[in-house]
């Protein structure tokens, strides 16, 4: 058979064993529903400190199920490791105890799923074990498992076939369990602060809320192009207009951009908006979110990322962008200057700029070139120029800058926030400036969202908004060096 020729020896042997389950043992190779009453992790928590004598005297009966990931022994006695979502536990099977049931474990391959009824015990070496009294075959694995000692040697296979990564690498499974708990902790914090979780459209007729290139698709029924959202911002602010005073959304964002250690075309953010807040209030909110998330992995909020200690317990530093640039380079952008003077400073310090840039763009470029990488401990950088902050409110004391901040840790940006621009006239002017940049060649600049401007014309209260990159935060808290390690199914080039 052509199919048989395409199989390696191990796969052929497994198919033969599958047939034997039917022919010799009258079993369904892919099983049926099974009731278990215990998980491996719970059994360890409950019985690891018990003595062998106590366990044998009390005869605690349990029912477990999971994948067999190790097997030792032969003949009349077999030890095996069974793994479920909570961890691993050893089982001990004896032919004298199981009789006609014993061939199930004897013929089982690594990767097969088994149901086990048994008695808690410990070996002479002190390892917690389930003494098997009955076995149920639940599912046959027709392909061999990855080598438990070497895992998956091809890194790309870990991302393309995440299921194999989760089988072979307990660290990966633990990391994604932590991710889920981190997101849950953020939700609990936000809900506890009186926020309402909402959902906004992923398909939009106009992409806005960020400087990014969108993915474009076509809606056949309406015969219009639509865009995968690049941010949740503009719809969430519409809800503030509508009277929802505290809202947040955790959801997928899509940006048609390159991929690297910190970027994937689809990623997860949390955005929140609070009526009557300003950006300083949002700083306090952000600290609360980060600390709630960090408690998942560290009770004292001290974490270690690639050998660098990070203290998330103490108050985050708060620094103006212009002050940080002056500290790093000696260049002082506080005095008003012309674009020619700013370009001259950029030339002197070898900072590249585009022909359509204004002074604010150059200030931001100085920050990115000389300051960003130096911010190790949690730092709020505020006072971004108007030119790079089209949705933020101007600072009341210096209209060149906005009431905006970004939070930096280890040279990376983890959150972006500002006192929201709620003046529809100013907002239109900012959108028009962005549209002009698009004409000049900035294909990430926003267009003019007329519906959003109309919403602002009905009145939006002073509002503080926040956006946090969930994937980057999970990377930080799980000591991961690439976003692909914290996204279950990252975008990959087709094989």
From TrEMBL:
Entry-linked InterPro entries: Aa-tRNA-synt_II, aa-tRNA-synth_II, aa-tRNA-synth_II/BPL/LPL, Lys-tRNA-ligase_II, Lys-tRNA-ligase_II_N, Lys-tRNA-synth_II_C, NA-bd_OB-fold, NA-bd_OB_tRNA
Keyword Ligase: yes
GO biological process terms held by the UniProt record: lysyl-tRNA aminoacylation
Matches recorded under CDD domains: LysRS_core, LysRS_N
Positions with a binding annotation for Mg(2+) 1: 406, 413
Localization terms from the record: Cytoplasm
Protein name as annotated: Lysine--tRNA ligase
Origin species: Convivina intestini
